[in-house]
Amino acid sequence: MASLFVNTENYRFEPLSSQKEAIDKMIEDQEDKLYFLIEDIITNGLSPVDLIIVTPSEDDNKYIVLEGNRRITSLKLLNNPTLINDKYASLRRRFQKLQKEKSEVVSELKSINCAVFENPTEADIWIKRKHSGELNGVGTVTWNAQQKQRFEERTEGKSSIPLQIITLLKSHKDVPNAIKDSLPKLNITNLQRLISDPYVREHLGLEINNGTIVSKIQVSEVVKGLLKVVTDILNPEFKVADIYNREKRKQYIDSFDKSQKPDLSNEVSEQWSLQDIMNKDGQIPLNNDSKIAKKENKKTVKQRVGLVPKSIILHIDNPRLNKIFEELKQVPVKTCPNASSVLLRVFLELSVDTYLEKYNLVQRNALTASSSGESLQGKVNRVVQHMTQLGTMNRDLSKGIRAEINDTNSVLSIDSLNAYVHNGFFYPKADNLIIGWDNIENFFIQLWGSINNNKE
After folding, report:
1. Can you tell me the distance from the alpha carbon of 337 to that of 324, in angstroms, rounded to the nearest whole number?
2. Which residue, among 146, 141, 139, 151, has the nearest Cα to 163 in the 3D structure?
3. Burial tier of 339 (Cβ tally within 10 Å: 0-12, 13-18, 19+)
């Protein structure tokens, strides 16, 4: 590591005069990103498909980094956190703590594989291919939103809402082949914007339960409404401005002809999801509405009054926070879903703030996590990542929590939790809240266990 120089002529910045200036500039530009980067390197290692590119320096046995300056800077900071000046004291403390906790990994990362180019000009062609876009196919061709979601579906095992809709339409015999053939080109950002709106979902006969589309309306009726939506989005004249805000989306869905709207009175006896209705060949028969089986687990809904089961015990020293937790057990979630959802949002943020303060992870040198100005989503993600690094949270739970809070369609996403407080048109449903709590219950148990185990 000591033989590698951060490039003072890094294309990210104007030319600099010294190593210290180059590192300072990278810290100023990247800040927390350098910390998240080194955490990922510690966890997964340096990418074997994207080697650091270097060229010999005028100094003997020294090399200048041409590509990978962010990675090298983060590694240098891990090896020597005192390189971070007092302006970023909070970041320095986090690197120092990480260095102490991961001392074995730190020593292993002092020697890394690099691609060496004797002439920097020879490296430029490959650097350009990485950073200059598609270059008519010569460079890296980035995935579109649908392709990214398919990757996440295969690697994380959770299908996004737009992909569930696409699968439903591709599998249903009522959908014309011309539409099915066009679905790979569908702008799923527009579809996501529409389906994220509760008013739109209500008029399409859809609900979202823990990231999964469910419905009690006959499948053929649901397909009818979705077919109208995707046909419109596939139309080149369709503009995002037509559905940009809540009022526009309401106008859009209200403009459907009666023949294009699902008949919401055509209910089936049991709620269904996509997995319930697909046959073994991956198709949805025309007359399958009578075969729908309900997957929703009602046992937990019936056995408790509050959102949190009374059997769950957390050792919380803060009297007010402990009282909020107890109220989550006592407030009847079925009759008071609004109160329960707001209490949950408050409990989550105060719990996360307590963790950040306990582990000295508060951002921007603020006295408290609540005064740091960091978003709730950012705080939760950092806590999950920190717990994963410490080994107090397993990776499966970590992935599940990240998916839950970052999926805008989840009942417990940060967007949903904020909407419970700030959006007068967003209505939480008791059953969905209960299922949501069950999905993240272990997160709170492990979080408070970590807080209580930290003796600092």
Report:
1. 15
2. 146
3. middle
Residues 6+ apart with CB under 8 A from 174: 220, 223, 224, 227, 286
Q: What b/e string do you get for 364-377 counting C-beta neighbours within 10 Å, with b at 16 or more?
A: eeeeebbebebebe
Question: Hey, how many other C-beta atoms are within 10 angstroms of the C-beta on 222?
Answer: 23
Q: How far apart are CA 218 and CA 216, in angstroms?
A: 7
Which amino acid makes up residue 179?
A: I
- Pair 417, 341: CB distance under 8 Å: yes
Confidence of residue 294 (pLDDT cuts 50, 70, 90): very low
Tell me the per-residue pLDDT of 234-248, one tens digit each, with 9 for 90 and over. Answer: 999 999 898 988 899
Question: Residue 141 CB: number of other CB atoms within 10 A?
Answer: 12
Q: Which helix (H) or strand (E) holds 5?
A: strand 4-5
Total number of residues shown for the chain: 456
Say if residues 225 and 203 touch (Cβ distance below 8 Å).
yes
Q: Which residue, 397, 380, 386, 402, is CA-closest to 450?
A: 386
Q: What's the confidence (pLDDT) of residue 287?
A: 52
Tell me the CA distances in angstroms from 413 to 7, 159, 160, 368, 381, one per residue in order: 40, 16, 14, 24, 12
Give the pLDDT band (50/70/90) at residue 289: low
The whole-model pTM stands at: 0.46
pLDDT in tens, 65-95: 999 999 999 999 999 999 999 999 999 999 9
pLDDT at 351: 95
What's the confidence (pLDDT) of residue 411? 67
Rg from Cα positions in the chain:
26
What average pLDDT does this structure show over 404-422?
A: 80
- 8 A C-beta contact, residue 306 and residue 328: yes
Cα separation of the two ends of the chain: 32
